[in-house]
Amino acid sequence: MSEIDLSTKKRQAPIGVAILFLLNLRKAVNLFIPFLFLKYGAGSSLLGISLYAIGIILFLGFIAFSYFEYKNFFFYAVEDKFIIERGVFRKDKTTIPFERIQTVHTAQNLAQQLFKVVGLKIDTAGSADNEIEIPALDRSYARSLQEYLLKKKEKDQKQQSEPGEEETTAQPEVESWEKPILKLSIKDLLKVGLTENHLRSGLILFAVVNGYIWQFEEFLLEPFEPYLEEAEGWLTQWVLLLPFTIIVFIVVSVAFSLIRIVLRYFNLQFFLNERGLVLKSGLLKRNEFHVPRNKIQYFKWSSNPLRKLLGFKTFVVKQAGVNENREDKRTVSVPGCKNKQLIDVLQEFYPERYTGKFHRLGSHKLLFFQRFIWLVMMPSIIVTASFYASELTWHYFAPIPLFVLLGGFWAHKFQRSVQFRTNGEVIEIKKGWIFPSHLSITMYKLQNVSLKRSIFQRRRGLSTLVFFTAAGDESMPHLSHNDAIDIYNFVLYKIESSQKSWM
To answer: Which CATH class is domain 16-160?
Structure first.
């Protein structure tokens, strides 16, 4: 791959005008078009101008705006900085020191795939939205620019960590290598979709559709008002409708899960290289995520009853610098992993996990009582009281004892599943019976540890440990206080004495 020259200002690919136009048009459609047509109607007018004419004017305006936006978008490099200039009415100049670059991703939405261009996304340390994007580059040029930025970043970071070293000293280059870990076929993708958490998928779909539709309640429901009034009588027979509603909910949830999984993970390729982890996936929007080794904080994997039958796990890479408020949290999630693929990744990044003997500790029975009281007994009491107040027959009360028994069994199994273990170099926490999860953190990635005690824990000699990393915190509840103190002191010692950097 040839070295690119960024000493002079560069523009995006010429087709970038079309990409910018589509981006601007999508924003306008989301913000203005539905409001105008719902408020005034397609054949109405605004200030004496028909909405069709307004649409044509806006269309031409977006073309002109997109052209000037393209003409005013430049990127180049000066010394140790990458600079982006953009803006039509307001000029912006973004300066990014190479050492502040976290990682560089490529992405292709449907329009970019059709026009055969690639968007380049640069994640930086300390920025408000954590991302800067160049929307339209030729694929080969995007690869060259990505490689250029990553090499500059590595060079500047190495010079900062070794300030006394002469710049003229030749640095040996790291040998390039690549190890494939997982590639999902269409068959595997369908298995992943069918074993998804369909209850969660259905609730997400219901929330999204409900939130969108009721914004336009007045316009969407008006034609159906006569039918809704007639339906009030038979809607009271909800018991008859319940089985049908459940079947429809299940079918729609499964379909939504399949569609979501195929769109997100189509042609998934997951592999390791000398720099870290790489994940490529997506149908309508093709993403390529690079996670550098130093940015990886810890690993987490989980399953569910259906995926356990197939030996599938969802493998998650937690990385530093993630803004939890963003919709796209840059948490790399890889579904359909099996034990061998999981071990391959852990052996590469966490060799310490396979040295020494693990010491195991379980959570106290207080966890059982908390879950049983708050998630089983309290709902049962509320439902029983409401049924009694409604003077319902005993048939309605019959399922409640069964719910209490099953809930107690679930709370017991969950409490037994919560475990902590360490071999002195790695901390691992397991939680969950029906939906088990497992996380693994090396000691040198920890930034801090805290010990917490509630009034109920004090009376029983218990404590909760919370472990803090640059990617978030994880907790282990209800350990023996003496064991928690020993772990707390040992982890603090490892944090302070470790010579390895967490980034």
So the answer is: mainly beta
The answer to whether residues 20 and 70 touch, using CB atoms and an 8 Å cutoff, is yes
Q: Per-residue DSSP letters for 164-208?
A: TS-TTSPPPPPPP-EEEEEE--HHHHHHHHHTS-HHHHHHHHHHH
User: pLDDT by residue (tens digit) across 104-163?
Assistant: 999 999 999 999 999 999 988 655 455 789 999 999 999 999 999 988 888 887 777 665
Q: Residue 455: is it exposed, middle or buried by C-beta count within 10 angstroms (0-12/13-18/19+)? A: exposed
CA distance 290 to 127: 19
As a whole number of angstroms, the distance between CA 136 and CA 150 comes to 19
CA atoms within 13 A on the CB side of 160: 11
| β-pair partners for 274 | none
Of residues 194 and 398, more confidently modeled: 194
The three-point CA angle 202-208-210 to 5° equals: 95
Distance CA 492, CA 468 (A): 11
What residues contact residue 155 under an 8 Å CB cut-off, 6+ apart?
98, 171
CA–CA gap between residue 252 and residue 461 (Å, rounded): 49
Q: Residue ranges of the domains in the chain? A: 16-160, 366-415
Q: CA–CA distance from 473 to each of 31, 57, 362, 467 (Å)?
A: 37, 52, 19, 5
Residue 327: the pLDDT is 44
User: Which DSSP symbol is given to 412?
Assistant: H
Alpha-carbon gap, residue 342 to 299, rounded angstroms: 10
CB atoms within 10 A of CB 63: 15
Alpha-carbon distance of 139 to 118, in angstroms, equals: 6
Which residue would you say has higher pLDDT here, 260 or 206? 260
